[in-house]
Specification:
heterodimer, A: 307 residues, alpha/beta, Rossmann fold, 2 domains, five-stranded parallel sheet, 15% strand, globular, B: mainly beta, Alpha-Beta Plaits, five-stranded antiparallel sheet
């Protein structure tokens, strides 16, 4: 039984195969409109995440499958005290595959070891969100053309931002990838990521505080939100929040084909005037998210690629 | 120095950090043994300044390696006929079950009490263990 709990559950070859399949889906979604007919996905969302849940449901519906599930813990047996292990044993009887979102880290892993159907981690606390990573990789591969020989700037909250951590884990496998980390001291990339992931792979990276200085070098700018609650005092937050807002002035410094990605929701870290810039890829990213999830569901269910 | 009789046959757990003996005593459930068990606290040590020692007056068959995460410097000395016949350093096991607990308040183990606490070794050089569920590293306070 295959599951996707962490981005590392996929080998480099499997990841590439999956991205190729997703790319094929993106080019001809109609070809896949009936390939999961008769299959059901259970979306077990213990905390609300409308966007991710709808993306999974749209993915299954796009392939002719059906969906069932719940969208908050209040409407599930968890409110009666049922364990994750028991819930998944029951759901295994109802559905062919499941996507689980849970506020507690490791809950989808617990589900996977007790499940008879493939489990997809749809986000567990601040831990993993592997389908967001697949989405990011597919967006970069499709719009930039390759995941190799690329300089990625990560900006904002790099300390707690799980999407950035997962992206780093995945990208270090590709040749000649460089990172530029743009963050205030309070939100710098954790040391363990440097020591356990970047250094062992010999990845070139630098840490800077100014977004303007590095804009011209970047092929991809991955923006994240600087959250007020991450700061010890409001003074620091007010001092720093505006330095990491992407606006048209900063975009003038960037390459003509640089991509701007963001896991969304955006608050004010990308000014709305940037939305009309052709390099703004964050809404296209949402569409690629559906294709990535379609490819993943097909792969885990063992569904053949339609002719 | 306090004088405690030597063992004829048994095990001496040496080089436990000062104050750590009771924790080891509890993990090993030594209170269930019928034989004599001596806990020596704050003994003088050239290497450690102060240390704790546990003397068990019986040879027992336990995998002490599980304790490496708590007491990386602890040595196991096997005594037979009043003589030390073997001295072992602890080796870090790949997995640890039930010895340490995940302290991450966001971990699933914080709300599902029946889940066993399981850790895997992710960096042997630095003795870093991570929770199998949430991957938070275990921080040894010593």
């Amino acid at each position: 039984m295959r599951h996707l709990i962490s981005p590392e559950d996929l080998s480099f070859e499997e990841l590439n195969t999956l991205l190729d399949l997703a790319n094929d889906i993106a080019h001809d979604p109609k070809k896949y409109s009936n390939c999961c007919h008769g299959k059901k996905i259970a979306t077990l969302f213990y905390e609300p995440s409308t966007r991710t849940r709808l993306s999974f449901e749209a993915a299954m519906l796009n392939m002719g499958g059906s969906v069932l599930g719940f969208s908050s813990a209040d409407s599930s047996s968890a409110s009666k005290g049922e364990s994750v292990a028991d819930t998944i044993r029951v759901v295994s009887c109802y559905a062919d595959i499941c996507a689980m979102r849970h506020p507690k880290e490791g809950a989808p892993y617990v589900a996977s070891i007790n499940s008879r159907i493939p489990v997809i981690n749809a986000g567990d606390g601040g831990h993993n969100h592997p389908t967001q990573t697949l989405t990011d990789l597919l967006t970069i591969k499709s719009l930039h053309g390759s995941l190799e020989n690329i300089t990625i700037g990560c900006c904002g909250d790099l300390k707690f931002g799980r999407t950035v951590h997962s992206l780093i884990h995945a990208m270090v496998q590709f040749p000649n990838v460089k990172f530029v980390f743009i963050a205030p001291d309070e939100l710098k990339i954790p040391t363990y990521l440097k020591e356990e992931v970047l250094d062992p792979h010999g990845i070139e990276y630098k840490e800077v505080k100014s977004l303007e200085d590095v804009m011209p070098e970047l092929d991809v700018l991955y923006m994240t939100r600087v959250q007020k609650e991450r700061f010890f005092n409001e003074e620091d937050y007010i001092r720093l929040k505006d330095s990491y807002i992407l606006d048209t002035e900063k975009m003038k410094l960037a390459k003509e084909d640089m991509l701007v990605l963001h896991p969304l929701p955006r608050v004010n870290e990308i000014s709305v005037e940037v939305d009309n810039d052709p390099r703004a890829a964050y809404f296209k990213q949402v569409q690629f998210g559906v294709y990535a999830r379609m490819a993943l569901i097909m792969t885990l269910l063992g569904v053949e690629k339609p002719e | 120095m306090l004088n405690i009789g030597g063992l004829n046959e048994g095990i001496v757990l040496d080089h436990i950090h000062a104050g750590g003996a009771m924790e080891i005593y509890n993990y090993l459930n030594l209170e269930k043994l019928d034989c004599s068990v001596a806990i020596i606290k704050n003994a003088k040590s050239n290497k450690m300044g102060r240390k704790d020692i546990i003397k068990i007056d019986q040879l027992i068959d336990i995998d002490f390696n599980m304790l490496a995460v708590l007491e990386p410097n602890m040595t196991i000395n096997y005594i037979k006929n009043g003589e030390r016949v073997e001295k072992k350093q602890l080796a870090l096991p790949e997995k640890i079950y039930g010895i340490i607990k995940c302290k991450n308040p966001r971990c699933i183990t914080s709300i599902e009490q029946e889940l066993p606490h399981r850790f895997k070794l992710t960096n042997r050089e630095k003795a870093i263990y991570r929770c199998e569920y949430c991957e938070q590293s275990f921080k040894n306070k010593k």
